[in-house]
Specification:
Blueprint (H helix, E strand, L loop, with lengths): L9 E6 L6 E6 L4 H15 L5 E4 L6 E4 L6 E3 L1 H10 L2 E4 L9 H15 L7 H16 L11 H8 L16 E7 L5 E4 L2 E4 L8 E7 L2 E6 L2 E7 L7 E2 L15 E3 L2 E3 L12 H8 L4
Parallel strand pairs: 3-6, 9-13
Antiparallel strand pairs: 1-2, 4-5, 7-10, 8-9, 10-11, 11-12, 14-15
Length: 283
């Protein structure tokens, strides 16, 4: 529970192979950008980059992994990310959880020890709790396998083996998408709706997501900019996108300013996402 809402949280867990130090970060999804943010956060938390990173076979990371030949085809953007940080990616053997047992045990440990039975006032409160728990509990316990305290084992024999991250800038993560403008003047991105100028209804537009912003362009011209939403079934509207439509001078308000009254009966102008939510999936 976060506030008054029951929220599904995905825990990213990175484990250093020798010391068993953990890095844990919560996300609302398992998209590629979340994986990259997790790995990048782990490097900064540990103060260096490992030679190798053993990864799950998530679709955002691994394009193909042949179970018999063990041939792996990594996502092109993962290659760019690995080259930026200078590590060698490795994929776990499909259907063989023991190949990443250290991480799997770390996930279970975090869920049972740090999360179970707790409520959080907000998402930042959850993040702060996990940071404190890693520092004061996970780093300080005597590890069941090594018989040592992870932070002490790290400082003695592992910290010096990591490659410095000094001067390495963050990997700029941008998603490029193409969307068709719906009849209600919006495009759908990750189950949320964002408005675009009504004259583009039926047209295809290009969407770039980076730095928490969503930028929409058509025919080489930027036509809309929105702050990206992390929830689901939210609707972000810029009233200027309805300029020129009869009845668009109304003074309703959203978080981004005045919003025009609907043109026509409101029951006919519900966003398509509402119907999708009712039927439990996409059309």
């Amino acid at each position: 529970m976060i506030g008054d809402e029951n929220v599904k949280v995905y825990l990213f867990v990175a484990t250093l192979g020798y010391s068993r130090r953990l890095y844990i970060r919560p996300f609302r999804n398992e998209r590629q950008e979340s994986w990259f943010a997790g790995v990048e956060g782990a490097f900064r938390h540990f103060g260096g980059v490992t030679e190798e990173v053993l990864l799950d076979n998530d679709r955002g990371l691994v394009a193909r992994h042949d179970r018999l030949t063990r041939e792996v085809e990594f996502n092109a953007r993962l290659h760019a990310f690995a080259k930026h940080w200078g590590f060698r990616p490795r994929a776990c053997a499909p259907y063989r959880a023991r190949t990443k047992g250290k991480d799997e045990r770390g996930v279970g440990y975090a869920k049972k020890n740090a999360i179970a039975g707790r409520r959080f006032e907000s998402w930042p409160a959850l993040e702060a709790h996990l940071e404190e728990w890693v520092r004061d509990v996970a780093d300080q316990r005597v590890h069941g396998t090594t018989g040592e305290v992870p932070i002490e084992r790290f400082r003695r024999a592992e910290a010096g083996a990591l490659r410095s991250i000094a001067g390495v800038p963050p990997f700029e993560m941008a998603r490029g998408l193409v969307r068709k403008v719906q009849a209600d003047c919006v495009i759908e991105i990750d189950s949320n709706a964002y408005s675009v100028p009504w004259r583009l209804i039926g047209e295809s537009v290009r969407v770039v997501i980076a730095g928490g912003m969503l930028r929409v362009s058509h025919a080489g011209h930027e036509v809309a900019v929105h702050h990206r939403r992390n929830g689901r079934f939210e609707r972000v509207v810029d009233p200027l996108h309805f300029d020129g439509i009869v009845g668009s001078g109304a003074k309703a308000h959203s978080e981004m300013g005045p919003v025009p009254d609907p043109i026509g009966p409101p029951e006919l102008l519900r966003p398509l996402l509402e119907y999708e939510r009712l039927v439990g999936g996409r059309w």
